[in-house]
Structure formats: C-alpha cells, structure tokens
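can u do me a favor
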C-alpha cells in the first residue's frame, strides 16, 4: 500500500523547478542565475528539477520553420514562434492579432473571441463547447495545428533521450551545480512524448 512506502528524502529539502522561470527555454546560465538568486535570498535550493527544454526535440514535420538564426547566433532548424518570442506559450489572442491582418481574417478573429469569451467559460456539455468540438475536428483543425506548432511547444516530440545542444555537457553541469550550490538531488524532467 502507498501509505506503507517510505517517503524519499528529497521531500525534506527545499527545491526549485526551472519550468516557471524558463518554460522550455531553459539554459545553463539561467539555472545558475536562479540558484544564485535563491542562495543570496537566504533560501538555497537543495533539489533541482531541470524541466522541459534540456532534451532533444523537434516540431511535427509539416509545421517546421526553416532554419533561422536566433538572438544568440545559433543556427536552429527547429524553431517556433514561442521560442523566438522567448519560450513558453504565446497568448492565443495576441498571436491571432499579430497574424491576422486582412479582412479575410475576420472569421478567425471572431472565432478567437468566441472561444476566449464564450466556449472557455461554458460547461463541458454545453452547446458552445459541442459546436467548438465539431469545428476543431472538422473545419479549423489545420489552422489549430499551425497555431500549436508556431505559438506553443505542444507540437514538439521527443526525438531521443539525450541532451540538446545547450546541454551537451549535462553531466558536468550537474556536478558543478551540486558542488557550487550544495544541491543534493537533481531530476531531469520531460513531459514531451516521443515520435
């Protein structure tokens, strides 16, 4: 039974997860800056959860963006609008407003408004939700898939269980973090699905 199992010792220490600070745009320098801030603030972390962003991923093939140079000068063949904007998720309404610039876009603006103001606030089995479900499966599926690929990390798939280019020296980084910041436990989290 679960209540008979011993609790792991990592539950007795203060920890920090990189997700809320960086989403999938985590980098070694940011981790060090975060641990520095916690230490200087008098709450040093003894547990680090390195969340999504360290592993090798790619967007669905049909929604990949051509190679672009990001602000650090790295060539990246798999970038999304979310990454270029700093990571995480680009707000749906802001994304729609930035992408929709002609009179032909009025139906999309109306759908965005309808979803955010009506569907999202409705009960699961309500008529607006049922209509939205039908639209997403039958009418606007490709547009939604494009949005998820360009404005979120949700269309990414794990390609292998190895660190990406930012974390090629993951083992030595973890050793340094444990030594420099007194970390006792380090977990590398990944919630992305495979291909």
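np, heres the sequence
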């Amino acid at each position: 039974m679960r209540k008979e199992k011993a609790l792991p010792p990592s539950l007795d220490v203060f920890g920090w997860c990189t997700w809320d600070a960086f989403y999938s745009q985590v980098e070694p320098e940011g981790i060090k800056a975060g641990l520095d801030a916690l230490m200087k603030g008098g709450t040093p972390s003894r547990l680090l959860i390195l969340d999504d962003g360290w592993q090798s991923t790619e967007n669905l093939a049909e929604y990949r963006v051509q190679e672009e140079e990001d602000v650090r000068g790295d060539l990246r063949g798999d970038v999304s609008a979310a990454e270029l904007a700093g990571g995480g998720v680009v707000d749906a309404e802001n994304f729609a407003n930035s992408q929709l610039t002609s009179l032909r876009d009025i139906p999309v603006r109306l759908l965005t408004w309808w979803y955010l103001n009506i569907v999202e606030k409705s009960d699961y089995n309500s008529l607006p939700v049922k209509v939205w479900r039908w639209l997403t499966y039958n009418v606007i599926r490709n547009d939604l898939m494009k949005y998820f690929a360009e404005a979120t990390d949700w269309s990414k798939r794990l390609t292998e269980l190895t660190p990406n280019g930012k974390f090629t020296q993951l083992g030595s980084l973890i050793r340094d973090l444990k030594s420099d910041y007194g970390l006792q436990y380090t977990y590398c989290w990944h919630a992305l699905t495979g291909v």
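The longest helix spans residues 28-40. hope that helps!!
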